[in-house]
Amino acid sequence: MKENMRPESLMMSYGYKPELSEGSIKCPIFQTSTFVFKNAQEGKAFFEVAYGKREQLPNEELGLIYSRINNPDLEILENRLCLWDKAEDCAIFESGMSAITTVLLEFLKPGDLILYSHPVYGGTDHFIHHFLPSLGIHTLGFQAGQSEEEIMALVNDSGHAENLKLVYVESPANPTNTIIDIEACRRVADAFSANHEVVVAVDNTYMGPLWQHPLSLGADLVMYSATKYIGGHSDLIAGAVLGSKALITRVKTLRTFLGNMAGPWTGWLLMRSLETLKLRMEQQQRNAIEVANYLKNHPKVAKVNYLGLLEEGSPEYALYKRHFTGSGAMISFYIKGGEEEAFRFLDHLELIKLAVSLGGTESLAQHPKTMTHAGVSEEHLADLNISDALIRLSIGVEHHEDLINDVAQSLEKV
Ligand SMILES: *Cc1c(COP(=O)(O)O)cnc(C)c1O
Q: Could you report the per-residue pLDDT of 53-108, keeping only the tens digit for each?
């Protein structure tokens, strides 16, 4: 019966057995480091499977061992997150960055090549540019708008085509909402996989797990900063990776040894957040559509980057229709003028808070060039259309008229 139900109907109950927790309607916080075995034979059996010495038997119930390997708050959360992306398995991490870096470290070895879309999140960009090369890993970037043939040519010209192991995509990209064709990335990966697997991994933080499902578009792994929409209340840091059982087993094994799983308290908070995930995100999207439409017509605004405003008939619009089921709640726009005008706008907002991060219940505004993207070089900023005039908004669950009034009064001061 549950197979036919929508994820939002199952977020309160899926994977949890009240009879194992004194009938408690909610999954308790299992604030414990270790778990008691019934007897030594059982402990031996659990470890045999955990360390891959043998497969789990068909009817074998495996118990818990130690909270770095597994904990009920993480396991139930992982099972629930799988429902949104129709994934076989999920691994939860203590941050989005630990989810991303664990994937990069598991699937790339010295001499390998990573092909990645840019712009990517600042932390990811730093890890790819400054840490992976120190391990002897080759890195190659491509941009939204480059055709499949151009990307293939880039790989062929890199001198490392035979060592391509990972295609890494972030879409829509932060802060300009440029979008990447994941199906085309799958085809590029397949073109170079004659002798080994080429994994396609997508950072879906901006849209997931509601409005884009990369696994259904050909990706092998989907990654999240759960700090953003999944957590949704700007009160925790966490990450997630989802995909096939085989790939997630590799990711979870490295997680066990890096020790970067989330703790039970974070797992519990995320389960609480998942109950309202769809409600929150749909309200945020409705508000964002209103705010984007208001900005689009404002005389002090030069241009608005919002998926809901893509021009019908354009190639981007066609890709948007193929990949996304909604336009999301992230907006960026160019104010007429430069840094002075942008700062004046940011400094006069009253309801919308001036802060980085995104996806929370409250609306936030920030200046990418001097804040989230301060580490990006000048020439790169120009390539990515990140100018002094660019402002990014993460739209929350407030009443849209109050948000628009705040934007209006602040633009008035510019
Ligand atoms: C915030 C963010 C990250 C990093 O996540 P943390 O939870 O802060 O470690 C990665 N990718 C994107 C797109 C993000 O917005």
A: 888 898 888 889 999 999 999 999 999 999 999 999 999 999 999 999 999 999 99
**Residue 164 sits in which domain range?**
67-274
Tell me if 223 sits within 8 A of 95, measured CB to CB.
no
For residue 91, give the CATH number of its domain: 3.40.640.10
Domain-located, residue 12? no
Looking at the structure, tell me whether residues 365 and 393 fall in a common domain.
yes
Residue 411 sits at the vertex; the CA angle it makes with 406 and 413, to the nearest 5 degrees, is: 105
Q: What residue's CA is closest to ligand 1, atom 4?
A: 96
Distance (Å, rounded) from C-alpha 354 to C-alpha 367?
9
Residue 353 among the catalytic residues: no
Task: For residues 240 and 162, state if they share a domain.
Answer: yes
Cα 387 to ligand 1 centroid, rounded to whole Å: 22
Active site includes 190? no
Q: Is the CB of 174 within 6 Å of ligand 1?
A: yes
Site to probe by mutation for ligand 1, drawn from 205, 207, 229, 364 as the one with most ligand atoms within 8 Å of Cβ, is 205
Domain boundary among 255, 274, 293: 274
Q: What is the reported pLDDT for 82?
A: 98
Closest Cα to residue 347, out of 362, 365, 331? 365
Cα-to-centroid distance, 313 and ligand 1 (Å): 32
Rounded to a whole number of angstroms, the distance between the first and last alpha carbons of the chain is 57
Closest atom of ligand 1 to CA, residue 170: 13
User: For this structure, is 168 an active site residue?
Assistant: no
- Here the CATH number for the domain that contains residue 331 is 3.90.1150.10
- Do 133 and 268 belong to one domain? yes
Compute the distance between CA of residue 139 and CA of residue 112 in angstroms, rounded to an integer: 9
Which of 14, 26, 66, 68 is an active site residue? Answer: 68
Number of folded domains in the chain? 2
